[in-house]
Design goal:
Layout: H1 6-16, E1 30-33, E2 37-39, H2 42-59, E3 63-68, H3 71-81, E4 89-92, E5 109-113, H4 114-117, H5 126-131, E6 134-138, H6 145-152, E7 161-169, H7 177-183
Parallel strand pairs: 1-7, 2-7, 3-5, 3-6, 4-5, 6-7
Amino acid sequence: GTLGSHRERDLLEEIYAVDFVNVPTAKCKLFYEHVPIVCKSAADWTDTIIESAKRLTETDGRSVLIICETLNEVAELYKVFGGKNATNVRTYTREYEEFDTGELSPGQIIIATNLAGRGTDIKLTQKLKGAGGVHVCLTYLPSNIRVEQQAFGRAARCGDRGSGQLIVLDQKEILNIMLLKRQR
């Protein structure tokens, strides 16, 4: 798993007198991160997420995992997508929820919280792999790089291709998203 920032490693090393080893993955990561989008209003944020997911699923034949910060955001996006009338959209909000871990096919949209999405093994059909795999849309800027890496790590697993993008709402604490990402 991910060990976090250098400060976190230093703290663990100081307290427990342990060493750290970086073990490379068995297969090369075929992940492409799109340029982050910072939206000025909640309506623009919602529209941008919806448009991105629809373009990727309908035009590109991909599937999209939308990761939200809160349960309310999951519910709101699900409602905007059409709720129960949208047969290609499902939610996953709790670790204990039943989640169909069958193969994910092109055109599917999963809206989840970060906690619910962790540890869920999403298998892809050959058709989805050929279309470019899963695209992860992270709808908030996590407080640390480890959470962001875990979220984007849902795509491009086991040597498959995948992509991701931050689509966030402009907030006072996010003055310059690119600067923050560079500092990480």
